[in-house]
Structure formats: C-alpha cells, structure tokens
Automatic annotation (TrEMBL), chain A:
GO cellular component terms, semicolon-separated: nucleus
Region of interest (Disordered), residue spans: 1-34
Similarity comment: family membership: Belongs to the GRAS family. DELLA subfamily.
Keyword Repeat: no
Keyword Transport (UniProt): no
Alphabetic keyword roster: Gibberellin signaling pathway, Nucleus, Repressor, Transcription, Transcription regulation, Ubl conjugation
Protein name in UniProt: DELLA protein
Species name: Gossypium darwinii
Swiss-Prot/TrEMBL domain comment: The DELLA motif is required for its GA-induced degradation.
From TrEMBL, chain B:
GO cellular component, one term: cytoplasm
Taxonomic classification: Eukaryota, Viridiplantae, Streptophyta, Embryophyta, Tracheophyta
Family matches, as PANTHER family: ARYLACETAMIDE DEACETYLASE, GIBBERELLIN RECEPTOR GID1C
Name the record gives this protein: Alpha/beta hydrolase fold-3 domain-containing protein
GO biological process: floral organ morphogenesis; fruit morphogenesis; gibberellic acid mediated signaling pathway; positive regulation of gibberellic acid mediated signaling pathway; raffinose family oligosaccharide biosynthetic process
PROSITE patterns referenced in this protein's UniProt entry, alphabetically: LIPASE_GDXG_HIS (PS01173), LIPASE_GDXG_SER (PS01174)
Length: 541, 360
C-alpha cells in the first residue's frame, strides 16, 4: 500500500500551469470562486475535489481498489451496466462505484473499513492537507474562457487568399463597430473581388461568402432585419427539415432530450410534454415508441405543441398532432394532442397549456430559449417571465438544447468573430458529409442564422445564442437545478453519430451535460433541469 | 516511499477507471472511456502566456493535433488568421508530443495532457504539437506510428515553424508511456527520410517483451497496475497473433533493429522507480548506449508513473529542469560551436570576419 505525504516544494508551486509568472492579477472569476478549497492540482486535470476531502477520497479509492480485486464479477460488464454521472465530481463517482461493488449494508462491519483504525496505520505519512493552491487555469469553468477562442482551423485556411479574406472580414467588422461605414463599404468591395478568386464551393470561401452577405445587408439595409426573419412558416419548416436530415445536430438534440424525458417519466402514468417548437414533430415518434415499449406499459401521453400560427388557414399544428396521434394509436399508446399557436414564445401563457396537477410535465425547448434574451425596455424580460411560469408548472424535467456559442455579446466585433469561428466549424462539418440534396437547403438554414446574428439588432435579432456556462447561471438563478445526463445517454448519442458518414463528430460530457461538436469544438449543448422545490429564485441582474 | 496525495488520487482514479474499460475478450468500452475522460477545449486566449488551437492535419484519418504557442507581448490576443503566424525567435524548439494511455486511453484534448503541454511551452520556450493519434484496439500497430509520422512530416513542412536562424524546423519528439514508445518509432522512421529530429524525450516509455523481468515480478499489482493489464494493452496494440518480442514492443529484443552507426537523435529517458516495467525501460537505455547513441537516463527512485502530471513533487521539478536543459542545449551548443570555429579561424582572419562568423 502506498503511503502518502504532502511533499511539496514551497514557493515554486504557484498553482499555475507554467513556470513563467504572469504579472496580471488573477482573473476576476478566480477571486469570486465560491468553492475556495477545491484542490488546484486536480482541478487542472478536470476533477473537482475539495482539499478537505482529499484524504477521504483517497481512502475511498483504496477501498474501491480492494473491492475491485475481490469482486467476482467481470468489472467491465459491471461498468457497462452501471450508469455513470458527472465524472468531474470524483468523490460521488467513486462512491457510486463502491456501492455497485460492495454488498448492500446488511453486514456493514464486513465491508466497511473503520476509518479510524485505518488512519493510525497511515497517519504519520499523511500530513495535513497540501497548501491551498489558487486555481490552475480554468479548464472546467467556461467563465474563464471567452468562447470566441475555440477554434478549428481548416486546411483551406492555409491558402493566402483564405487568410486575406478572414483579415478583411475582421477589418470590415471592426469598421462597422466603429461606425465607419465608408471604409466598411470599400472593404466589402475588396472582399467581393477577392471572392471571385477563391473557391467558394467549400471551405473558408463559402463561409466568407455568407458573412460578406450578412455584412452587406447590415451596412446597406440597416439592422431592422429586412427579410431575414421573414420567410414564411412553410419556408422555415422546409429549411429546418433539411438541416435535420443533413447533419446530426438536431437529431442529437431530440435523442438526448427524449432519453432524459423517458427517464424522468419512469413510474408515472399520466405524462404531459410541452414542446416549445413543434415544427414537424420530428422529435416525438421516437418518444412515443419508447414509451410504448416501456416495461409496465405506456403512460397516458399528452403532447402540447407550440408553434407559429399558419397564415393560410391551415392548422398545421393540428395536422401534425393528428399524425402523431395515428402513430400513437398504432403502438397502443393513449395519446392526446393540443396545439398552441403563438408567434412568440413569450406570448404563451401557462393557462393555455392546461396542465393537470396530477400529471408529470416535461418542458422541451430545442433552441428556443435564446430567442427570449432580447430585451425590450418597455416590457418585462421575456426570459424571466417564461422561466417563471415554467417553474410554476413544477415540471418533472425541463430539457434544454442550445447552440454552444457566445453570439449574444454586446460588442459587434466580438460577436462577429465568435460567429465566424462557430459557423466555419459547422460548415466544415457539413462539407464533410456526403453530397446529398439536403445540403444546399441545410446551408441556407444556417445562412439565415448567420444573417440574423450579424445583420440584426434589437428585437429583430433573435439568434442570441449563449454558452452552457451562461445558461447554467441563468437557470440556477431562476430556481432550477441540473439533472445530470449520464453515460447511457452519452453512449447512445455516440452510437447515433456512427450512423453518420462523416468522422469528426464528437460527443463530450461536460459537468452533467452533453455537447455535440465537430473536431473537438462543441457546437450544441444539451442539458436537463428540474425546478427547485422551495426557496425564492433570484433572477440574474 | 511517499507520493503526494493529489497525485495518488489522480493516478489511482485513472487506474481504477481503466480497469472498468478493458474487457476480457480484448475489446474496449470506448464510449465509457470517452465519457469518463476529462477533456478541455483549445483556447486561443493566452492563459499564463500560452494559447492553443486545433488543426486537422490529415482529413483521411481525421488526425487532429493541438498546437500550443507562447503568446507574445505584442499580440495579446491572436485572431483567427494569426494563429499560424511565423515564429520570430532565432531558434524555436518545436516539440511533437504524443500523449500516454497505453495506446488505448486518453486524447490530445485530455485535461491532464493539455496541462502538461502548456507547461512544456513555458518551460522550453517551445511550440508544442500534441498529436491525437488513433488508438488501440480499434486501430492497431502501426496506426499510431503512421499518425506520428504524418505529424512529423506536417510539422517539418510548416514555414511558420521554421527558426529564423536557419529556416529549418527544430524538432523534438516527446511522449509519456505509449507516447514515449511512439516517439522512438517515429524517430526511427525519420532516419532515412532526411528529416532531422534533434532529440527524443521519453517519460516512462512503454516497452516490454516476452520475458518476465525482475521488476515486473516484484511490482506486479503493487501500485494499482498488474502485469495482466500491460499484457492486455500489448495484445490490443500489436498485430493479432504477435507476441511481445515484436519490435514495436521490444525494440532491442530478438526482432529489433540495430541502431549502430545510425544517426539517431539524442534521448532523455525518465524512469520511475515504482513502475513495474522499468527493467524494459532500462534495457532500452542500455540498447541505445550499446549502439553508441547519446542517451541520458533519469531514474526517479521514489516516483510512480504519472508523477510528472502534477507539479507537486521533487521529481517533477528535477525532470522539468532536465527537459529544459535538453531542449535548450542545442542553442547553446551552436553558439559555443560557432565561437570555437571563429577562434580556430582567428589566426587567419581579421576581426571583421570574426564577427561575421559569430553572427552568422
């Protein structure tokens, strides 16, 4: 057995990851770190362990080792069958494994070593906790990293023209931020000229083209949005459908959310799903089928689908509801559908959903919450209003999927830069997919997002994407606590990806949430939440 | 015999988690492995003077590498087009780093390796290229070496990585565990290619052989690692049916290649005294010496594997000091050589020429 000590070298361990000293004061977030006693060394490795608990965790690890050695079962099978959660919380993870491996506590004295007697053997070697180290650079806290720094540089960048285009885009954006529109205009002309000499079918040329268009729109048409947000409901649905088919982002969203909802509904007989954006209801057949196959039989499922009103007299919500009802009937799931037509999510009032107090509610928001972040000085903040009434429904689960990007920064240049990185990566992932008819329309879907982020302001700018770290803060502040997505959801999401021909997609676990990205840059993040049952919620300032 | 608490927790956690991932039938629970692995994104915002970005260096194999560079004073926040701006110093070492994990675990964006590579940048004033090579058992020998070789060629052909002094890329290969093994074999491949590798840094390199050595018998199961585990990893990496005397595993064994008379880079080999495969690592060092190759051995008696992952031990600082000297010695030697050259020529030339020689 290894004995530990706290052999450290005084002075030379600054807790930072390099030996060069920085003369800047530690970042603000370090000083505001609420859990001051997190072990800095392990934090740098991605684990959150309190210094005060280090010894306890070490003991548990020793016990785990013993349990593993003594375990008659095939460990790998056990590992497969167990659902793991949030590996960063090392103490909990070790404990959960220990409880899997050790017998139920009918004979505690046999299996649980007395920590006191254990200590006398090793207490000499275990001195008191190591000096508290200030945080190593924040690998796990997104607050530390401004997201416009996550990059995937594609090989096409190595062309000089590609690099020049990027330079010029940045210059142009900077001019726009400064209000120097004449210089911005001449930049635009130069870029359009350069575009003719660059491959615009793929790579940086294609992405640059979209950004040039968006800048053009901003400069010449102003920030009211013009026809960007226009597009009939039919058009939007068509583009959405092609985006759904061409790449795995929406499928991942639906799949992960459904998995979490299924688990949350376990043991409940009356369940009600509220979908913030029904579209074609693509998410729900899979859930209906999974509920049909549930051991113990399916629940009564109600689905309330929110969507924009149909302009041409069709009741498209009802049509989709009917189709889903037909499917439910075919698999013997009792099903009821209700459509709520609203042009804006903030116009929806909870009474419209007719939630029955006896039923378990799941609120499902796939890329909708960010649209509520635009603030209108004349009204209450829409996001606060909506989160508040969601909470009042006391849902069993709220599934949230959002673009993993910082496209809601106040400064135009920052936003532009971040969008350039984000959408370059997304387009790269699309390029890598095999040619299919869906691709062109899927690209238009993405292009519309770009145009909104770059050329709109105020209430016209609805694509106000914020990263997971910000949503965590916001949702916690609004009285929600996270429900962790575990290794089973992770595994199924990974397997979903193998169905796609392009290699390069990756699912990652991030503190209980799952992200899907391309070549190590996360692009979309899925999380699950539950209303905290008591206490007041303080909305972030 | 003492190890710091944080290090012990970290290494112990890895080892126990790894036990869950290896299946008796030789397959690997890749999904759970990826789920458990703590990863970090690249960060083009300098943190402690280092920024990073990911590059796809081979589309065919989805071979990603993470590049780490020192931030310069005039460029506090590089933008997307400036990440590959040419290095400005006279001599910039470029360290191609291969992460560890016994060929099966971890990635270039694993938190522990991201941290380690950042340290290397500051320590050696180097650019570090961390290669996300394909892993076993899904990808056996020679995939990892092929990826290493691809990375070496890529690095060598980047104009922006050329040192100002001689417009060449000053390349070092480094790695821990399986990464150390890869570094050796990539250096081997480089020999006939004309690509100069200036040095190899091998931290607890993963080598083995059919024979059971004394250290393996003595330390089997003592520090959460068993001989059976190592056997599993070799079976997962080596071609099916091959035994551990395959040259990938045992480069100086019965099937190994002689390095006598070969221009092989100088090596710095770090061996941990509590590592059960140390006899193979020491045999590797002997093999290099016998072939007349330059090699320095750092034997850290009290150290466990992975001790260099956290900066909280004497061993850590000893090793980092040695690495720093190893990498910078080329610069010093070159200047010294030049001085000697110039002094030698003093008899025949005047002072103007002398200065010219010196400056180069």
């Amino acid at each position: 057995m290894v004995l530990y000590d706290s052999a450290t070298i005084g002075g030379s361990c600054s807790g930072s990851s390099s030996s060069s000293s920085s003369s800047k004061p530690p970042p603000l977030q370090q000083r505001q770190q609420t859990q001051q006693d997190i072990d800095g060394f392990l934090a740098g490795a991605g684990y959150r362990v309190r210094s005060s608990e280090l010894r306890k965790v070490a003991q548990r690890l020793e016990r785990l080792e013993t349990a593993m050695v003594n375990s008659p079962a095939d460990l790998s099978q056990l590992a497969s069958d167990t659902i793991h959660y949030n590996p960063s919380d090392l103490a909990s993870w070790v404990d959960s494994l220990l409880s899997e491996l050790t017998q139920p506590p009918t004979c505690p004295s046999e299996f649980i070593m007395d920590p006191v007697s254990n200590q006398t053997v090793v207490s000499d070697a275990w001195t008191t906790a190591e000096p508290h180290m200030p945080q190593v650079h924040q690998n796990i806290s997104y607050e530390q990293q401004s997201l416009n720094n996550q990059l995937t540089v594609v090989p096409a960048m190595e062309e000089d023209s590609g690099i020049r285009l990027v330079h010029m885009l940045m210059t142009c954006a900077e001019c726009v931020q400064r209000g120097d529109f004449s210089l911005a205009t001449s930049c635009l002309e130069d870029m359009q000229g350069l575009l003719t000499r660059v491959n615009t079918v793929c790579g940086i040329g294609k992405v640059a083209g979209h950004f040039i268009d968006a800048l053009s729109r901003r400069i010449f048409q102003g920030i009211g949005g013009g026809s960007v947000n226009g597009g009939s409901a039919y058009e939007n649905e068509l583009l959405y459908h092609h985006f759904y088919e061409a790449c795995p982002y929406l499928k991942f969203a639906h799949f992960t959310a459904n998995q979490a909802i299924l688990e949350a509904f376990d043991g409940h007989d009356c369940v009600h799903v509220v979908d913030f954006n029904l579209m074609h209801g693509l998410q729900w057949p899979a859930l209906i089928q999974a509920l049909a196959l549930r051991p113990g039989g399916p629940p009564l499922l109600r689905l309330t689908g929110i969507g924009p009103p149909s302009p041409d007299g069709r009741d498209s919500l009802r049509e989709i509801g009917l189709r889903l009802a037909e499917l439910a009937r075919s698999v013997n799931v009792r099903f009821a559908f209700r459509g709520v037509a609203a042009s804006r999510l903030e116009d929806v009032k909870p009474w419209m959903l007719q939630v029955n107090p006896k039923e378990s509610v799941a609120v499902n928001s796939i890329m909708q919450l960010h649209r509520l972040l635009g603030s209108d000085p004349n009204r209450n903040s829409p996001i606060e209003t909506v989160l508040s009434w969601i909470r009042s429904l006391n849902p069993k689960i709220m599934t949230v999927v959002e673009q993993e990007a910082n496209h809601n920064q106040p400064g135009f240049l920052d936003r532009f830069t971040e969008a350039l990185h984000y959408y370059s990566t997304m387009f790269d992932s699309l390029d890598a997919c095999t040619v299919q008819p869906n691709k062109a329309l899927a690209e238009i879907y993405i292009q519309r997002e770009i145009a909104n982020v770059v050329s709109c302001e105020g209430s016209a700018r609805v694509e106000r994407h914020e990263p997971l770290s910000k949503w965590r803060t916001r949702l916690s502040g609004a009285g929600f606590r996270p429900l962790h997505l575990g290794s089973n959801a992770y595994k199924q999401a990974s397997m979903l990806l193998t169905l796609f021909s392009a290699e390069g997609y990756s699912v990652e676990e991030n503190d209980g949430c799952l992200t899907l990205g391309w070549h190590s840059r996360p692009l979309i993040a899925a999380s699950a939440w539950q209303a905290v049952s008591d206490g007041t919620a303080d909305f972030p300032a | 015999m003492a190890v710091s608490l944080s290090t012990w927790v970290l290494i112990s956690n890895f080892k126990l988690a790894y036990n869950l991932l290896r299946r008796p039938d030789g397959t690997f629970n890749r999904h759970l492995a990826e789920f458990l692995d703590r990863k970090v994104p690249a960060n083009a915002n300098p943190v402690d003077g280092v920024f990073s970005f990911d590059v796809l260096i081979d589309r065919g194999t989805s071979l990603l590498s993470r590049i780490y560079r020192p931030a310069t004073a005039e460029e506090p926040q590089p933008n997307i087009a400036e990440l590959e701006k040419p290095v400005t110093a006279e001599v910039v070492p470029v360290i191609i780093f291969f992460h560890g994990g016994s060929f099966a675990h971890s990635s270039a964006n694993s938190a522990i390796y991201d941290t380690l590579c950042r340290r290397l940048v500051s320590l050696c004033k180097a650019v570090v290229v961390s290669v996300n090579y394909r892993r076993a058992p899904e990808n056996r020998y020679p995939c990892a070496y092929d990826d290493g070789w691809t990375a070496l060629k890529w690095v060598n052909s980047r104009p922006w990585l050329q040192s100002q002094k001689d417009s060449k890329v000053h390349i070092y290969l480094a790695g821990d565990s399986s990464g150390g093994n890869i570094a050796h074999h990539v250096a081997l491949r480089a020999i006939e290619s004309g690509i100069d590798v200036l040095g190899n840094i091998l931290l607890n390199p993963m080598f083995g052989g059919q024979e059971r050595t004394e250290s393996e018998k003595r330390l089997d199961g003592k520090y959460c690692v068993t001989l059976r585990d190592w056997d599993w990893y070799w079976r997962a990496y080596l071609p099916e049916g091959e035994d551990r005397d395959h040259p990938a595993c045992n480069p100086f064994g019965p099937n190994g290649r002689s390095l006598e008379g070969i221009k092989f880079p100088k090596s710095l080999v770090v061996v941990a005294g509590l590592d059960l495969i140390q006899d193979w690592q020491l045999a590797y060092v002997e093999g290099l010496k016998k072939a007349g190759q330059e090699v320095k051995l750092l034997y850290m008696e009290q150290a466990t594997i992975g001790f260099f992952l956290l900066p909280n031990s004497n061993h850590f600082h000893t090793v980092t000091d040695e690495i720093s000297k190893f990498v910078s010695s080329d610069c010093i030697k070159t200047i010294g050589e030049r001085i000697m050259q110039c002094i030698g020529a003093l008899l025949c030339v005047d002072y103007v020429c002398l200065f010219k020689c010196f400056l180069g």
